[in-house]
Structures are given as C-alpha cells and as structure tokens.
Amino acid sequence: MSIYADFRKDLEYIEKELERSVDSSSPIIRQAALHLLRAGGKRIRPIFVILASKFGHYALEDVAKVAVSLELVHMASLVHDDVIDDSDMRRGFETVKAKWDNRIAMYTGDFIFSRALSSIGEIEIPAVHQLLAETMLEICKGEIIQIEHQRKTDQTVRDYLRRIKRKTALLLSSSCELGALGATANPSIVRKLRRFGYFAGMSFQIVDDILDIISTDEELGKPAGSDLLNGHLTLPILFIKDDAEFRPFMEHSFAGTLSESTRDEMLLYIRNSGAIQKAQAVSDLYLRKALGEIKTLPDGDAKRALTQIVAFISKRNY
Amino acid sequence: METKQMKMNIENYMNEVKYALREPILERDVGEPPIDALKSFFLLLPLLNGEKWTEQLNTTAVAVGAVHAAFDAHDMIDLTKVDNKQQQLTVLSGDHYSGIHYRLLASIPDFDFIRTLSQTIGQINEVKTIFHEGAPDSPEKLIKAIRKIEGGCITEFLNVFDFSRYTSLVNTALPLLWLHSTTELNKTGQVDGFRANLKDVDAQQAIRILSTELQEAVEEASFLMPFLQSAIRQLTIPLLENPI
C-alpha cells in the first residue's frame, strides 16, 4: 500500500517488535502467535499510533511500545472472537481454535494480551494506562452487547452504530489518542486526533461489514456473509431486514439451514437491494467528519498521510 | 475471635473482588465471577498476620483476584464447541475480569506491578499450554508447573511488596491442594484440558514431596500467628501423609 511509503521503516521496526514480543517458551503459542502475525492484517492501529505521535515529540522506541500493545490487544481479541463465533478460517488461514482447540485459543489470546501489557507497561504515563484499560473494557462490553443482539431483528441502526463504536472505532480512536499522549502532544491536538480516529474507525467498520457481503470467499479468506451466518446484523442488513423477500434468507442463516446455493442467492439479493449504497453513504459521512478533523491539524507529512488513509478507507476492497 | 476476624477479612476481600468485576449481562447469563477462597486466604496471609496493609496493597490484591477469576473463567471453556450464549459470554467474562485487573493497577498507577504481573500472566499461559499438550515428565517438573499456575500471581504480589517470607507457604500449600483436588476429580472423569493430563503416579510422588516441604515451611514460619498456622494445618492435614 503506497500510503505506507513515508513510514515504512518505522512500520518494519514495529513489525519486528511485534514478532519479538510474542516469542514464547511454548512452541504452540509461538507458532500460533506468529501464524497470526504473518497472516497479515492492515496494521491500521500501529499506523494511527505512528501518525498521531508525529504531532508530538516522536521517539520511535516509545511509539513502537504503544503500537505493539494496541496491535496485540486487537490480535488477542481476534483469537477469542474466533472461539465465540466458532470460526475455522480467518484471512485465509486456519484459526487457532480450529488448528488446536478452544482452550489453546484462550491461552494464546491471554498470552498475547499479557504481552500487550508488558509492552505498554514500559510507558510510565498514567493517562496512557487509564485510557487503554477503559478502551479494553469498552471493547469487551461491545462484544457482550453484540452477543446480546445476536439474531435479534428488532435492533436499530442506532444500536448498530453504538456497537461498532465499541467494537472498532474506540480502539482506532485510542490508537490516535495514545500515540499523541505518548508523544506528549498538545492536548487540543490529542482531542482532534481522538475524534479523527473515532470517525475513521466508524467508517472502517462499516466498510468491513460491506466487504463481508460484496467480496468473494477467496478475497475474504472466509465465507462471504459470515456476519449474518453468525447472527450479527450489520448496517446493510438493517436496511433490508424487514423486506418480505429477505426474511426467509435471514431465518435460514440464523437456523444454520442455509444451503450454499441459497447463500449465493442471498448475497445477490443484498447486493442488488440498494442496501450497500446506503451503508456506503453512512460510511462516507463519517469519512467527511474525519477529514474535517484532519483539516484543523497542523500541516506536515503526518497530516498528508492521514488524508491518504481516509482515501484508502473509502476505496479499500480488502 | 482471631478466626472470626480472619473469615471476615477473607469474605470482605472476596466481596470487593466480586463488586469490582460486576457486569449486569454477565451476572445474568454467566453468574457470579469465580473467586477462589483458598487463593484469597493465601493472598491475604500478610494482612491476616497483622502486617501493614495499605489502600494500594488492597487495590493490588483485588487486581490479583480479578486475574485469578479471568483464568478460572477461561478454563471453563469447552475444548471443542462454544455453541451457546453462556459459553460465548464466559469467554468474554474472562476478558472483562482481565480488563478490570488492568484498570485497577492503572488507577494506582503501579507501573512496576503492571509489568511484573503481565510477565507472570504470560508465563502461566505458556505453562498451561505446554501442560495441555502433555503432562510434565517428572514430579519435580510437575510441581514447578503447578506452582506457577496456582501460585504465580500471588508469589509475585508477595515478592514485590516485601512479603517474601510467605512465599514458601504459598508455593507448597497451593500446589498440594490443587494436586489433591485434581487427582480426586480425575478419578471421576470430571476434568478436561491440562488437568486431565495429570499422571497419577507423578501426582502421588509430587504430593509426597510437597507434604514434606509444607511441613518444613510451616515449622519455619515462626512469624506466623498461631491461629494462621492452625488454619493452614486444617486446610492441608487431610492431604499429608504425616500430619504436621
């Protein structure tokens, strides 16, 4: 991705630190964690940390500690999510729980989480820890609410937005805020970056939910429509959940009785319903707000890169 | 009187942990957090023995209790299938308890202990994973593994706060109690995961080694008030070949 070009070296350093941080005396944990790291991911959290830090006193070693921690928190939550959703594939690779078992996935997730705290533990700024702790608890609360909302068809767009705020936007918002706090940036800049991260994060998750429907199984590395198959009603679905023609698809998805061919029909129905465009419009609204925050930031390379990231989010297809 | 006070202190502590971990949806669907009374007793030994116990120590102790609850919640997850809401929420309950431990330490904030405890949590998960693949191949290695799993966090707490003299009690009594209860549960097939890998021969030998060590530890613990020595004896006498 070309937007990485300006800070590729820093990102490579962080990547090495990530690998180093999950080194383990347990061969299984080491293998599982490296497997997760090497499966890729967009590293959007480390990128946000790097860019936000550039608005303060940038010191790569400290930036890396924060970035590594946030990426590990994200990774740990994915390992546990796969247990919750009983998912066998992620990004085209077998999940930890599928390759070993649920208990190994729990231990691996907990191990990665512990390494996240070890990494950020080196940053002795109270506000950094208080913010990360609150963020982690809110993410968990978001997951709890997601399970509470599972297969519930009476939920609203507002419920969805609240859920993705906790599930995704908060960690991206905190990535920006922690990056800036760690670099002791000016408080007004910290606030702007936090808001930027939040708006960008909302858009990022909406796009993710759209991609779950419009991409192929191969592109996703898991079955398209997985969200609905797992009982999660995302924004496009909320726009059409009451359509008489769509309801049988939804009921079969929830009951686990959706055949392969009916899944294809369902995905086609959603794609042609106009729901994708409506969801995209909501995503664009958040992106415009994110851009609005960027405009108020001091000029420089970091500001330019943030603008490029907004463009990337709006056009991304992976 | 002292015993009554001891029970009250432990009960208060357990209630504090429970309160800190409260989350309405989890409480409704998963139940109250698992808080281990035995671990609470050993964690609070310095307090029960009349040592100076500050607000910071108390908050840190509650954080350690939260970590233990997180471990216990995640050990309840079915090995192969998480197919109902209660199991899904149990996964998240462990994550929630874990997050609370961090919030408590961040509120102090105790950076040293955040680092120390996170290292220990990582090591405990490593040991559990290794054990999950197969039991340690000697009683000594078995003791080392159980010592880390059962007493690792408490030992760190005691060491960091200058209560090291209590660690030999923790490091012998907790593995001994674990070995005994797991051996009993294994007979009825009520355990899974790494607990099911426990080999009876090694367990029996480990119990013998730990029994001797515990007797020595209690004898050497002259700093311990008599009612606490008695409490430890009462907890462990049924497990010892030669009662202390």
Provide a short characterization of the protein structure:
Chain A is mainly alpha-helical and 318 residues long.
Class inferred from helices and paired strands of chain B? mainly alpha
Report the average pLDDT across residues of chain B: 94
Helix count of chain A, per DSSP?
Answer: 16
Low-confidence parts of chain A:
none
Structural class of chain A: mainly alpha
Describe this structure in words.
Chain A: It holds the Pfam family polyprenyl_synt. Chain A: This is Heptaprenyl diphosphate synthase component 2. Chain A: InterPro entries: Isoprenoid_synthase_dom_sf, Polyprenyl_synt, Polyprenyl_synt_CS. The complex is a heterodimer of chains A (318) and B (244). Chain A contains 16 helices and 2 strands. With 318 residues, chain A is mainly alpha-helical. Chain A has a single domain, classed as Farnesyl Diphosphate Synthase. In chain A, α1 packs across α4, α3 runs antiparallel to α4 and α4 packs antiparallel against α8. Chain A is globular. Chain A starts with 7 loop residues before the first helix and ends with a helix. In chain A, 51% of the residues are buried. By secondary structure, chain B is mainly α. Chain B has one domain: Orthogonal Bundle (Farnesyl Diphosphate Synthase), CATH 1.10.600. Chain B is 73% helix and 0% strand. Chain B has 11 helices and no strands. Chains A and B meet through α4, α6 and α7 of A and α5, α6 and α7 of B.
